[in-house]
Amino acid sequence: HIGFHICPQNIISFYRLIQSFPAVKLHLTGAVMRATEVEFDKAKEHLKTLKNDPGNDTKLRIYALFKQATQGSCSSPKPGMLDFVNKAKWEAWNSLGNISKEDARQKYVDLVGTLISSEAPIQKEATTAGDPKSSYQTLQVTTENNITTILLNRPEKKNAISRKMYEEIMQALEQAGKDDSVLTVMTGSGDYYCSGNDLSNFTQVGAEGVEKLARDSGELLTRYVSHFIDFPKPLIAVVNGPAVGIAVTGLGLFDVVYATDRATFHAPFSQLGQSPEGCSSYTFPKMMGTAKANEILLFNKKLTAAQACDLGLVTEVFPDNTFQQEVWKKLRAYAKLPKDSLRYSKQLIRGMEKEKLHAVNAQECVRLQERWLSEECMNAIMSFFQNKSKL
Ligand SMILES: CCCCCC/C=C/C(=O)SCCNC(=O)CCNC(=O)[C@H](O)C(C)(C)COP(=O)(O)OP(=O)(O)OC[C@H]1O[C@@H](n2cnc3c(N)ncnc32)[C@H](O)[C@@H]1OP(=O)(O)O
């Protein structure tokens, strides 16, 4: 017995205690938050939503990881024999030895993730009435056979991503990250996978002018891309047709990309007076070499599915007439694999890169905010709407 009383009120005071540490306040008010710190903060918030008491051992582990992540190794003197609670906390913290702050932060995030997902309701059926998933306007989100599918659903606009759709995709990713499914799939409805950013996002200039629009767009894009960087389980793109702009660049943040042989991949940034996003200025050169990436990101080279596969952007290409059948057969088999093993393996594969990716995302969005205000970009957007100059 360690002196904690296990009741909901005590869980709440435990969180308050954790929140009240000066180190956390300092960390929260820091002007620049590092990527995993953002994730760490999210985990702290998620922790507050736990409905069940995780038990004293787990609470001590959470406490210890929190201290190690924010203050480093335990160096305070051991509390006296009769100071049960503080002694147990000290022992838990001290038992972490010299593990780094970053490792502790990751372990904290993983532990909270496991606790939260163990409470998630079991999803047995595809979308049902009253399910928040059925309230999306631009997406159709379903969970079936352990697979949550996010269907981009504006086929009449070639699934161009409107502001509403950016928000809904983020919301759907948050849900999918927490639900009981094993895999998350993104695909498009109709003949396109996605024609990228909806160019009318740049024509809705409010009273505060274009600078405000550019700032808001930069903020939206940063959040959007962060959701892919931080997505905790395997994320698969089923590219059912042509992909443009951010729908191409973001593919570097997916874990597997299956494409129909009808798909093309086009990131026409210089043609639009813009610059790369979705972390592609980092993921593309890393994946295919700088020279090949330059043809795509600087010189607007449109790739066929086979070329994209040769360059490593696409995992496998299927003939269009058997695409859906072959891909879903594979996915259904993958979705039978153990969920946590997949989740942890993905986190190991991606974990080391996360901070870098967040930094790249931030840098790309700063550059884009400047680009969106440029004459080059404004002319390209006007030209699309006035002359319908297509790519
Ligand atoms: C909040 C800001 C975040 C910014 C993130 C940065 C992201 C950057 C990018 O993604 S850059 C790429 C932007 N995309 C484009 O430039 C594509 C523009 N579209 C086209 O060139 C063509 O529409 C096409 C080649 C994709 C398809 O041509 P086609 O098959 O001939 O179809 P239509 O042109 O008739 O299209 C049907 C319908 O959809 C509308 N539409 C298609 N794509 C977009 C788009 N990206 N933005 C807005 N609207 C789009 C098109 O206008 C038609 O509408 P209509 O029927 O005329 O009302």
TrEMBL record:
Its main location: other. This is Delta(3)-Delta(2)-enoyl-CoA isomerase. It is an enzyme of class 5 (isomerase). It catalyses: a (3Z)-enoyl-CoA = a 4-saturated (2E)-enoyl-CoA; (3E)-nonenoyl-CoA = (2E)-nonenoyl-CoA; a (3E)-enoyl-CoA = a 4-saturated (2E)-enoyl-CoA. The keyword Isomerase applies. Keywords: Isomerase, Peroxisome. Gene3D superfamilies: 1.20.80.10, 2-enoyl-CoA Hydratase, Chain A, domain 1, Lyase 2-enoyl-coa Hydratase, Chain A, domain 2. Its EC number is 5.3.3.8. GO terms for molecular function: delta(3)-delta(2)-enoyl-CoA isomerase activity; fatty-acyl-CoA binding. It comes from Callorhinchus milii. It is found in: Peroxisome. Residues 36-121 form the ACB domain. Pfam families: ACBP (PF00887), ECH_1 (PF00378). InterPro entries: Acyl-CoA-binding_prot_CS (IPR022408), Acyl-CoA-binding_protein (IPR000582), Acyl-CoA-binding_sf (IPR035984), ClpP/crotonase-like_dom_sf (IPR029045), ECH/Chromodomain_protein (IPR051053), Enoyl-CoA_hydra/iso (IPR001753), Enoyl-CoA_hydra_C (IPR014748), FERM/acyl-CoA-bd_prot_sf (IPR014352). The keyword Isomerase applies. The gene is eci2. SUPFAM superfamilies: Acyl-CoA binding protein, ClpP/crotonase. GO terms for cellular component: mitochondrion; peroxisome.
